[in-house]
């Protein structure tokens, strides 16, 4: 039965996804006394719903290709669970990582990593990785971190961080609040704007959401393939979100805070929930000057 | 973008209106109080969860029996069960086994014991979560009992009694669009419709916040030490959501709506007509520990 499943899955292998044996080589057979306890399981595309329910949509929204799930057992110890998501592209893996970041302390594994309460998450290249154990203790923590390091070494190559991230001055925002995405469903998880895709987000756009240090307001920065597409998105957003602004691009909303929106070349910039209109306008003017 | 869109500003308007009612609208609330359309039990016990987060099964069992008798207006829990289960029934207990926050197995067994006491044979009772569609007892079930813990969810906002039935469809992704807004439709699937006799939303240590698809952190749970019980899954979830939202406000020290916003509970009433989501129309019968009930 398992060989039939393997053949079926191989037939569905996307060309830009590691094959099973290559992906299997990313995980060691043992670590600090824990041994693989069963063959790795693989889930491609929408098969992810066989492994997780609604949460699978998050990975699909980031262009997920294939998941490897590997369990490790050790006598009288908790099980360690490894999930390696082949996201197809480094930007997708980076996005999946930022979707979860902010949980806890940063650790030096892969291109960025966090570890807290038994869960290590990191990204490297086109892979997003979770290594977890239910009840952590010193020994379990070491095993989880070592396992993560081994997987990161096996991945081998770093991938580029989306260029849009480098545009944004790091001192403006809390780094752990940065979210990178290109689907409005992800925007809505972190900052609900509208049920419809009012910013026309899609695979050809890049979007960043951060929480600003100055007043905890949110900055949304979107890069479109062309200024025409940016203009269309700007019009959609302002029409549906601030119709009474009549094209001015700013409004005091019902919570007495300010939403300010601008379009600049192929970018749309929005500050949500600024304490003062002036702060938001000044920030956007500054960003306009430094955008390429 | 000709189609009208629900935006963040619609939620802000609702919040602003609620604040006005909160300070000046008591007479309006009092009027609404007289128009209750559904009822739930909210029961809590100070010691049902210990400081390490372990559940005391004996206390939980006593709470469960008390809530059943009160909800169904009977002398004892046994008589309450007789109102919802008959000896010839085949009963599926739809539980939830998420590794970090599962339904206590002791409660599952208590339910099974009470159902057997009515006269249902053991072979006609099953307890399952992800395997309900392949479980032979669930396949011929005439009655369903729905029990699970409340928790924040990265795609639907929260997972409660309504969402617990997603395993009854062979295609769960069909119910994922728009933050799972149409979970209420699950309750009209032939395998489910008209069979649910009881909903229990566990609020022992609910999770009020999550970051990412399978994020669990004890920091984002708290010992609420209770559960909500009723026959209306929408009302049970609506009350649970209100409590979760109140805890978020306490924890984050500001209004902090669920992320993403919870849309399926309201839609379960307004679009699918399977229960009551409007809190003003829900009678909450409070039993046990009252401190910090948040509602």
Quick recap:
Chain A has 292 residues and is of the alpha+beta class.
Give structural notes.
With 292 residues, chain A is of the alpha+beta class. Chain A folds into two domains: 2-155, Protein Transport Mog1p, Chain A, CATH 3.40.1000; 163-290, no CATH class. Chain A is 31% helix and 26% strand. Chain A is elongated, with a radius of gyration of 21 Å. Chain B contains nine helices and eight strands. The N and C termini of chain B lie far apart (39 Å). The longest helix of chain B has 20 residues, at 233-252. The model of chain B is unreliable at 20-31 (pLDDT under 50). With 295 residues, chain B is α/β, with parallel strands linked by helices. At the A-B interface, helix 3, helix 7 and helix 8 of A face helix 1 and helix 7 of B.
Low-confidence stretches of chain A: 1-15
As a percent range, the share of strand residues of chain A is 25-35%
Number of helices of chain B: 9
Report the end-to-end length of chain B measured between terminal Cα atoms.
39 Å
The shape of chain A is elongated
Tally the helices of chain A: what do you get? 9
Helical/strand content category of chain A: alpha+beta
Mean pLDDT across the residues of chain A is: 91
Assigned CATH architecture of the largest domain in chain A: 3-Layer(aba) Sandwich
What coarse outline of chain B follows from CA principal-axis ratios?
globular
How many separate domains of chain A? 2
CATH class assignment of the largest domain in chain A:
Alpha Beta
User: What is the number of strand segments of chain A?
Assistant: 14
N- and C-termini, Cα separation of chain A: 55 Å
Number of domains of chain B: 1
Largest sheet of chain A: 8 strands, antiparallel
């Amino acid at each position: 039965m398992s060989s039939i499943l393997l053949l079926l899955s191989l037939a569905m292998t996307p060309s830009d996804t590691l094959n099973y044996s290559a992906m299997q080589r990313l995980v060691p057979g043992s670590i600090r006394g824990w041994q693989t306890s069963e063959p790795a399981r693989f889930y491609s595309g929408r098969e992810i719903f066989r492994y997780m329910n609604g949460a699978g949509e998050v990975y699909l929204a980031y262009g997920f290709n294939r998941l490897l799930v590997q369990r490790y057992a050790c006598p009288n110890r908790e099980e360690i669970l490894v999930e390696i998501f082949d996201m197809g592209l480094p930007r997708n893996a980076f996005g999946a990582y930022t979707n979860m970041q902010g949980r806890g302390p940063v650790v030096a594994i892969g291109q960025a990593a966090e570890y807290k309460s038994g869960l290590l998450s990191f990204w490297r290249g086109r892979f997003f990785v979770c290594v977890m154990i239910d009840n952590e203790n010193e020994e379990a923590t070491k095993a989880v971190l070592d396992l993560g390091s081994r997987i990161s070494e096996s991945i081998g190559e770093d991938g580029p961080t989306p260029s849009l991230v480098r545009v944004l001055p790091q001192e403006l925002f809390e780094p752990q609040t940065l979210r990178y995405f290109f689907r409005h469903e992800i925007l809505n998880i972190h900052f609900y704007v509208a049920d419809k895709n009012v910013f026309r987000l899609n695979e050809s756009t890049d979007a960043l959401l951060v929480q600003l240090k100055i007043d905890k307001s949110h900055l949304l920065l979107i890069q479109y393939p062309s200024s025409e597409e940016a203009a269309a998105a700007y019009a959609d957003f302002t029409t549906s979100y601030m119709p009474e602004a009549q094209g001015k691009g700013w409004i005091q909303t019902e919570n007495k805070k300010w939403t300010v929106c601008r379009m600049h070349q192929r970018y749309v910039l929005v500050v949500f929930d600024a304490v003062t209109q002036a702060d938001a306008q000044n920030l956007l003017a500054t960003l306009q000057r430094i955008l390429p | 973008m000709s189609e009208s869109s629900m935006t963040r500003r619609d939620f802000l308007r609702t919040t602003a209106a609620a604040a006005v009612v909160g300070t000046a609208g008591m007479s309006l609330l009092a009027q609404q109080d007289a128009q209750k359309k559904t009822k739930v039990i909210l029961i809590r016990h100070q010691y049902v969860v210990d400081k390490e987060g372990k559940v005391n099964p004996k206390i939980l069992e006593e709470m469960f029996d008390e809530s059943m008798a009160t909800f169904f207006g009977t002398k004892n829990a046994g008589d309450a069960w007789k109102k919802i289960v008959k000896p010839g029934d085949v009963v599926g207990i739809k539980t939830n086994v998420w590794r970090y926050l599962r339904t206590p197995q002791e409660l599952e067994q208590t339910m099974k014991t009470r159902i057997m006491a009515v006269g249902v044979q053991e072979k006609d009772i099953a307890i399952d979560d992800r395997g309900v569609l392949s479980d032979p007892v669930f396949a011929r079930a005439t009655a369903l009992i729905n029990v699970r813990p409340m928790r924040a969810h990265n795609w639907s906002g929260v997972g409660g009694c309504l969402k617990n039935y997603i395993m009854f469809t062979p295609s769960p992704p069909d119910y994922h669009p728009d933050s799972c807004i149409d979970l209420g439709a699950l309750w009209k699937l032939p395998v489910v419709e008209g069979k649910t006799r009881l909903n229990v939303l566990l609020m022992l240590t609910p999770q009020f916040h999550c970051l990412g698809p399978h994020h669990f952190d004890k920091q984002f749970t708290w010992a609420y030490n209770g559960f909500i019980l009723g026959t209306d899954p929408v009302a049970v979830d609506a009350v649970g959501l209100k409590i979760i939202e109140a805890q978020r406000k306490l924890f984050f020290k500001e209004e902090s709506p669920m992320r993403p916003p919870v849309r399926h509970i309201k839609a379960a009433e307004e679009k699918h007509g399977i229960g009551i989501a409007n809190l003003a129309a829900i009678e909450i019968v409070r039993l046990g520990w009252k401190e910090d009930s948040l509602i």
